[in-house]
Write a structure and sequence with these properties.
With 87 residues, this protein is mainly alpha-helical. It is built from four helices and no strands. The chain has one domain: Protein of unknown function DUF3243 (Cytochrome Bc1 Complex, Chain D, domain 2). It starts with 6 loop residues before the first helix and ends in an 8-residue tail after the last helix.
Length: 87
């Protein structure tokens, strides 16, 4: 099963990557920009595997670039306390 097929596993995966980036000293703006780039890539290249991803893809498709940045920022907030390394 792909990591994208299970919403909780996907959030944990993103949380692990976020924790790693922050531990490596990546600042909030860089993380935000990466989240935007990942969101844009997923929306354009990856077929959503579950209902949550479908909602995000649909929202992304009608959002302005500023709104897409806001969605990316919200995803970062959503996964901040996810992942195996979170306390």
């Amino acid at each position: 099963m792909s990591i994208l097929e299970n919403w909780d596993e996907w959030k944990n995966f993103l949380g692990d990557r976020l924790n790693h980036a922050q531990n490596e000293g990546m600042d909030e703006q860089v993380v935000s920009n990466l989240a935007f780039e990942i969101g844009d890539y997923l929306a354009k290249q990856v077929d959503p595997k579950n209902v949550q991803e479908r909602v995000l893809a649909d929202l992304w498709s009608v959002a302005s670039q500023d709104e897409q940045q806001a969605i990316a920022n919200m995803m970062v907030k959503l996964v901040q306390n996810n992942g195996t390394g979170a306390h």
